[in-house]
DNA sequence: GGCTGAATGTAACTTTTGTTACTGCTAAAA
DNA sequence: TTTTAGCAGTAACAAAAGTTACATTCAGCC
């Protein structure tokens, strides 16, 4: 575990802290599609992402979803931080977007480290910063962009996260994450295809140039 | 200033910290409509809200606005926190919604206090928590609600912030903050009036029952 | 090979939101 | 008092998004 940890976090944490994380952290692997957090869960540990990607989703009153953002290696879940510290229920759902490896840190430790390690404090604050910025970005998208532009952004994000030009999603799945309907997604995808920007196949979309 | 401080923050901070805030903090008053932060500003101090209210706005590429949320007494600006610590430009605009009193804390102090005062750490973390929750709420509104519901929510919020049933805004102002057009706002307000929920007057809206 | 269920394509229509254009009203300035 | 600028009301239309309904295609299974 140490080697993996260092790869993503050594530039952030001093060796002492890395060693402690190595001691108390719990290394876990999850597979694409696995659920990590459900809305309403109480959380007792926070994740440090070693590899893979996690998607964070919000749910409306009808049970429909909206993709908020992705977590990538080196990230932690800011929502979890605040939930742990405040003993609050989770307001979001977290699913593995890819096969993912993470280190789980017990709440007590993260509180203790806030006092002991300046680098930990900075990491936690920086995490909040990036998360607030991601949320702003999400707000920009849904408030300022039309669905066709949001779809293009979504495809770009997916491509960057999975590091591949072929996105393995159905139109229905995309519709869920953008909080719209399958018909709308099909319509707009077709338009993108006719513009030569993507190629459509059953269960997958190839990005040509976006 | 001490007395004001204690009123809003004494349950959060130990006396030592209150005393220090009293020493290094800079008490300022602003009038409704005053601009506190512009997009792109570098921030060198963080505000603690004593009285009044601040509205936080986001801007799109065309220069149009969107109301994100309000800050109330006892709050601080989470965006400012991250900007200060990360030496980043502000991503938001802050305007005085009401006549407002705040204490400005220099960046160096807030960093120092993070190490020295547990209560300060908790306050900063709790601030991030509430702000993330507010942002989630904003996302819920724009992603899941129709304009008529958003308008109702907006009017309720305004009423609660100003603690009055009469909202002194033009339709144009409301349209800016909801990122829609004046005609749409007029239309929906008229509908609310015909349902007996509000009463419309020039430059003001009286909330009857929402 | 034929069956089946999921995925996709598409037309037709509705609803919601945004836009344009013009009206009249009101408060404050001249 | 008259003028004027900003505010509000509303009709008519356009665009974006959501809905319904049905046809077609495809992969995997029997």
Automatic annotation (TrEMBL), chains A, B:
UniProt keyword terms in alphabetical order: DNA-binding, Transcription, Transcription regulation
Which residues does the UniProt record annotate as the domain HTH crp-type? Answer: 145-210
Q: A Gene Ontology molecular-function term?
A: DNA-binding transcription factor activity
State the SUPFAM superfamilies in the record: cAMP-binding domain-like, Winged helix' DNA-binding domain
In terms of superkingdom, the source organism counts as: Bacteria
GO cellular component, alphabetical, reads: cytosol
Q: Where is the Cyclic nucleotide-binding domain?
A: 8-76
Q: What protein does this entry describe? A: CRP/FNR family transcriptional regulator, anaerobic regulatory protein
